[in-house]
Amino acid sequence: MAGHVVLLVEDESSLMDLMRSYYIKEGYTVLEARDGFHALDLFEKNKVDLVVLDIMLEQSDGWTVCRDIRKTSRVPILMLTARNQESDKLFGFELGADDYMTKPFSLKELMARSRALVKRAGFNQDDALVAIGRLTIDRRAHKVFIDDQDVVLTPKEYDLLLHFVNHAGIALSREQLLVHVWGYEYFGDLRTVDTHVKRLRQKLGHPGYIETVFGVGYRFEVT
Ligand code: CA
User: Fold this and answer.
1) Most exposed among 71, 175, 180, 186, judged by the fewest C-beta atoms under 10 Å?
2) Three-state SS for 145?
3) What is the pTM assigned to this prediction?
């Protein structure tokens, strides 16, 4: 995990000392804040890979910090609490925390969970941009480009394209597409799929991507 930056937010000096030395030993660069305001300030001014956030803080609380960070960032957030309450945990997840540890916890486990969170975030970022031939899909922004030209899709067309791309090279029946892209509760007819495929082909302006598979449905071709 060398080179990753962790922001530790904790007002208890003894715990901060322990965590700091563990993260440094693991190769992290450590930023520290004792209160929420300082934490948000540091977060804004630095590129942070992981936030370890205590709920009980002076002058502010971990909930507020978590909520504020989530307004602009998907950085992994691991929350710490002294209370072992399920409602705290659920509230944390609702606000967008990724993981949760109850004090007292093992520092070894904290390191293991931190490593997993940072790794997962890295994967997500790699997966965010999908490039196939002249086509690029930015999954975070829900945007599609042909060469560098923006392709404007409706949400359904976008979902359909993403489903095709995730199943590239596989023949998909209209029924399968209807179930997976429109949902089980949708009672539309199979021509809905044909209509959307037709529009998607027009918008992509490149007939080779979505092939008709006679008697089956459609297949997305990687060329
Ligand atoms: Ca505290």
Assistant:
1) 71
2) strand
3) 0.58
Cα–ligand 1 centroid distance for 115 (angstroms): 23
Domains in the chain (CATH in brackets) are 5-121 (3.40.50.2300), 129-220 (1.10.10.10)
Structure tokens at 223: 């060329």
Q: How far is the CA of 9 from the centre of ligand 1 (A)?
A: 8
- Quote the ligand 1 centre to 23 CA distance (angstroms): 18
Edge-to-edge order in the sheet of strand 29-33: 29-33, 5-9, 50-54, 77-81, 99-102
The string of pLDDT tens digits covering residues 129-172 is: 777 778 888 877 888 988 888 999 999 999 899 888 877 788 89
- DSSP designation for 27: T
- Ligand 1 centroid – CA 119 distance (Å): 27
